[in-house]
Amino acid sequence: MRDMVEIGMGRTARRTYELDDVDIVPSRRTRSSKQVSLAWQLDAYRFEIPFLSHPTDALVSPRFAIELGRLGGLGVINGEGLWARHADVEAKIEQLLELVGKGGYERAVALLQELHAAPMQPDLLAAAVAEVRAAGVTVAVRVSPQNARSLTPSLVQAGVDLLVVHGTIISAEHVGDGEPLNLKTFIAELDVPVVAGGVSDHRTALHLMRTGAAGVIVGYGSYPGATTTGEVLGIGVPMATAIADAAAARRDYLDETGGRYVHVIADGDVATSGQLAKAIACGADAAMLGVPLAAAAEAPGRGWYWPSAAAHPSVPRGSMLHVDDPWDLGGESIGEPVRPTLERVLFGPSDDPFGSLNLVGGLRRSMAKAGYSDLKEFQRVGLSVRA
Question: Which ranges carry the IMP dehydrogenase/GMP reductase domain (predicted)?
Answer without folding.
Answer: 19-304
